[in-house]
Amino acid sequence: MFKFTPSEEKNEFLGFLVDKEYYSIGIENVQEIITVPPITRVPNTPRYVEGALNLRGKVIKIVNIRKKLELPFKHYDGNTRIIILNAKNITIGIIVDQILEVFKVDKDNKAELPKLFRNESKIGYADKIIRNGEKLYINFDFNKISVEV
After folding, report:
1. What is the Cα–Cα distance from 107 to 63, expressed in whole angstroms?
2. How far apart are alpha carbons 83 and 94 in whole angstroms?
């Protein structure tokens, strides 16, 4: 059971899909959202690092969240996007299946991810569950993503 804690404070999140599952990330870390351009493969990187791209003169590492979560392969389609994330002078991109929405929630709609889930390596980026209407989003912590990549 998730315990949602009450609060007046509201935070904004970007909701997206990966393999028909709902995920989110704090909007404060989102620099921009782009379609998938050509990505240069970089040798000797982890399997989930798709490669690098040049975005207006800046080289950005691109992480394929599908690969990180060990999900089945899916070709990029018209909905596939790269979310460019930036914080503390670290910029990375994550490939997602589809962008859904930007939404605000107050703290009573956020719950810490239970230890049982936090210990699962496949969702090591996750830090909490966020309720937005009827949907439950698994929220990614940018700090966990940036440390690993």
Report:
1. 29
2. 5
Write down the domain spans for the chain.
10-148
Domain at 10-148: CATH code: 2.40.50.180
Least confident residue range of 15-19, 87-91, 135-139, 145-149: 145-149
Rounded CA-CA distance 96/45 in Å is 19
Global model pTM greater than 0.85: no
